[in-house]
């Protein structure tokens, strides 16, 4: 299901990790997380779940919870398909991304 979503790609110099962000367009923490990725020139892709049909949003959240074993809060980052970051706590993001 997640593969069928329309993601926006943001290019960056650092391509060590596959970073996917599930966000809300109105979320301040989401904006800070993506600004952090931009400032650190990390390539990532994202989708604003509040800008897709509600059925697709609910299915995406359900799929993320099943795959990663945790409740979805925003931003919800999937790193290399296996690691997760929920919310934006800069030291956690730095550690996970090896910065």
Helices and strands in order:
Elements lengths: L7 E3 L8 E5 L4 H12 L4 E5 L5 H15 L7 E4 L3 E4 L3 H8 L2
Parallel strand pairs: 2-3
Antiparallel strand pairs: 1-3, 2-4, 4-5
Quick recap:
By secondary structure, this protein is of the alpha+beta class. Helices cover 35% and strands 21% of the residues. The protein has one domain (2-97): Glutaredoxin, CATH 3.40.30.10.
Secondary structure class reads: alpha+beta
Mean pLDDT, to the nearest integer, reads 96
Name the CATH superfamily assignment. Glutaredoxin
Number of strand elements:
5
Write down the CATH topology: Glutaredoxin
- What is the number of independent domains? 1
Count of helical regions: 3
Rg, nearest Å: 13 Å
Tell me the distance between the termini: 31 Å
SSE succession: EEHEHEEH
Unreliable residue stretches: none
Looking across the biggest beta sheet, what order are the strands in? 1-3-2-4-5
Give the amount of beta strand, in percent: 15-25%
Question: What is the CATH domain class?
Answer: Alpha Beta
